[in-house]
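Notes from hallway chat w/ T.B., transcribed later so I don't forget. T.B. wanted the structure written out for a chain they're using in a teaching module, and asked if we could keep both sequence and structure tokens in one place. Agreed to drop them here.
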Amino acid sequence: MNELHCQCNTSDILKIQGKTWQVTGQLLPEMTLADPTARTLEQQETLGGIRGRSHSRLSSYGPWQINREVFIADDATVVAMRVHLLNSSDSDQVLDDVNLFEVTGEAHLKGAGQGMTHWRIVRMSRQKNDVPGNFKPGVQDMDMEHARIDGAELKAGRGVSAQDLANLKVDMMTIRADPGFWFKDRQDASAQALCMSMLGQTEHLSHLALSTGNDQQTFENLKVLCEFDGITVRPGQTRRTHWLMIYESDNEEAIRQRQVDMLATELNVHEPTPAPSFFCSWYFYGTDFTQADLDENLLEFKRRPLPFDVLLIDNGWMTDFGDYQANHRFPDGMEHAAQKITEASYRPGIWTCPFVVSHDSPILKKYPNLLARDQEGQLMTFHCENRLENVLDPTSPDAEPYFAELFGKLRSWGYITHKLDFLRAIIVSPRIRFADPTMTRAQAYRRGMQLVRKHAGKDAYILACGGLFEGTAGLVDGIRIGSDTRGHWQDPNGKTAYHKLGYLARIKQNIFRNHTNRLWHTDPDAMQLRRRNEPFRGHDEYFHLSEGSFTDDEAMTLLVNQYIGGGAVTICERMVELDDDRYAMLRRVMPPATSPAKVIDFESPQCPTMLWTRVDPEMTRHDPWYTLAVFNWANQPVEKSVRLSNIPEIAGKKQMGVMELVTQSVHGLCDADDSITLTIPAHGVRVLRIAPWQKRDIPLLLGTDGHLS
């Protein structure tokens, strides 16, 4: 990380100068503050484990007493800012969006003196169905189309359709990020990258809005907006924004790692335990997974064992969203199903959507005040599974007894592993209103997750799907970090960039979010390795789930996608029809055994192609070794020359044993400066195992045909 120099004048204009980047912007540009220099305070502060000093200025704006706070790290590597708003009046006040910081005009955001056409920008995004990654201002390609996707409006429960994406409202001149962006001069690889990012989602949601001129390549402004949702602020009550962090680095991996490390420190999130592996019923059966299907799969696992941990019964087992009683698919009940799974030496897992309630659920007679409303006082609805359902209000007095009943019942049946779906129902619309009018969407969401954790139990494994990322940290064990997978590489309609990329969009989501394993286990969703060209049981609506049209090369890429994630590994198959060769492939990534892979080529269009992983063996007499995954996203084979020194930790090392694990090709002893030429099939991958041979008295293992680690 590099030193930043920060100046702030009495008009709250901040000028931040780094090695490459210069940022000049204004705090609270939409507020004309009275007596801006009336009081100035300075004190020691620790932000995300980084020691520094905060400089505060107090003034007033109408009924508000405003405290603008600027943090500068002792080593000058981080500058951050936030504001406190105290209602100093004797009446309730309404707080809407707060424009925390604004940069306007090309002269005020510059990298090495270059304008926006020289930039490559990485966007981090709020919704799991968003596609994070690079885009280049003025370049109209798939990366730019991905940058414009806001998954908040997408319907839940049946995957992302081309029609869903076609209906999205797209602002051609503005791209939004949450928690933020990082900027890189794409013409100078040695230049620093600049990160501007919000730290946290527990008090309010935020987004950075980057706007261009009509030519889409001239920088117009960057606004940092804190979404307070029109909440009520009582007299004497203070609301505080999250910190906006600004820092530079020549290492893009370090940029994203700093974000999660600081968040983990702020929220006291412990290092996750080793990640589990799942069998999840959804990605073959859809809702039609039955007691007989469970028995069939358990019998097959007895015949052909697999080392996974949790057998998770997904959506389809229950009567409705709310009451959660077993339906006709499980005539002996869910307790019986849990017993069968436990007897087979797996942990039972179960699906619910605790923030969504069926409009006709009998549970509403018992808890009549359970539901949230909108600005007009009407019941708030959420579009899922091709129908409108109601949204639960976590601030309602009925919420806690409802969660206590639901998760107490599931525990009594034998389930302490939970997949929680459709969690975004609470946060997608700013029109939602809660029983507690002082709570933002972010606070209500976190309140709901706290109640779930309380009543599911400290020992429960909670896998969150479709909710907030940062706003969930510390309360869950795993998070889905991408869109639902499908049983084909290329979407047959191909009407949008999202679908033109097909499965690659899911891999891109995994790569750009795998660093969050510091906070939870990432779940890249289930890989589907079967060979099948017709819908199971004639369910055409689920053919995208039961289909299996992947080539052998694509199937290996799906497998390596699970490996580079560094989190949980998830599968779904009708195991009796999975061919032996595909069955054997599963053992190459099960159980999960490595940390998240690190990206070498963030700048690659569409998606990075090279990622490395350090493997630390449990047998300490052996040195660490490395794997290097090299992908080909093209529709035809390519030949790539790969320099081993792309892995920073082995630069300068001599005498390393190298083997390619997919083709089982031995490349012998190489030095770090050597290059290896790989022929990679369309949509395929090659994985190099690179083992330094320092201890000559110990035989060197080049590789195996077993686990990729």
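Follow-up for T.B.: The longest strand covers residues 34-47. Might be a good example for the class.
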